[in-house]
Amino acid sequence: MSTAPNLISKNKCFGGTVNFYQHQSQTCNGEMRFAIYQPPQAKLERVPVLYFLSGLSCTEENFMVKAGAQQLAAEYGLMLVAPDTSPRNTGIVGEEDDWDFGAGAGFYVDATVEPWASRYRMYSYVVHELPDLIAEHFPVQPDKQGIFGHSMGGHGALICALRNPEQYKSVSAFAPIAAPRRCPWGQKAFTNYLGSDPESWRPYDASELVLIAGYNRPILIDQGTADPFLEEQLLPEVFQQACETVGQPLTLRFQEGYNHSYYFIATFIADHIRYHAAALCS
Ligand SMILES: N[C@@H](CCC(=O)N[C@@H](CS)C(=O)NCC(=O)O)C(=O)O
Question: Which domains does the chain carry?
């Protein structure tokens, strides 16, 4: 049994509610926050749940404010949960110094290197503690979970699903960091959170995991062609190549002229919600 999360704010939206919560996380050893959209159907019955992991510099708020996902979630009866992207205010020196590491940049790993190891445990938080908390305190069907995300959160969604195919019945991503062992953002974060041996980074790299994962359902990825991070940081072709190698079904759509922003996400969010609904709402 976990303590009920504390409600911070409540907003009616498309007949349901967007609520913001704070709670004490055992996994991250301190306060964590998340946002949750409860569709109108959740007043009457348990509904499937779709987790969204945000990217660098985001909080639990960006997705709820900018993606425009609630209308479709209300139509299909999907709960949406968006956690913060890292612990905050931990007192760790340097936590706020960089926008691509530390606060706002937890990279969905369980850090093994101090001083991060005791607090920055976003992988276990997202895969275990948060779903357990949601299942206990909100009307969800825990056997019907999907996950998606953007950029760093697209990386997070892919690794969570590939490592836990039974838990996540569907996965998709917007502009994911698809091969973090090979890009500067990933190398910086993994070196600091996991240590300098790239072997220890492998369980957190979607392009490596897919080679051994056996995620037997299709994966959807949208990627804007005008994304300034595409060639140096995101590397979707590396993931695509790995999927081809093992016969993993992947729909990778290059969207002409779209950049890395939430305008891009908002444009294609309906496709992603429908994609998850097809897997979760049967
Ligand atoms: N350094 C810039 C770029 C970081 C960036 O593009 N972050 C993406 C995720 S990787 C994002 O979602 N930013 C927040 C937003 O657009 O609401 C910033 O701090 O916003």
Answer: 6-280 (3.40.50.1820)
Distance 14 CA to ligand 1 centre (A): 27
pLDDT in tens, 29-58: 999 999 999 999 999 999 999 999 999 999
Tokens representing residue 60 in the block: 């639990």
SS3 at position 255? strand
Distances (CA, A) of 186 to 41, 82, 98, 198, 209: 39, 22, 14, 11, 15
Which residue is it, tokens 């062609």? 225
The DSSP bridge partners found for residue 13 are 16
Which of 52, 57, 86 has the most ligand 1 atoms within 8 A of CB, as the residue to mutate?
57
260 counts as catalytic: yes
The model's pTM is 0.98
221 beta partners: 173, 252
- Whether the Cβ atoms of residue 147 and residue 247 lie closer than 8 Å to each other: no
Provide ipTM, 2 decimals: 0.91
Element holding 98 (H helix, E strand): none
In tens, the pLDDT along 10-31 reads 999 999 999 999 999 999 999 9
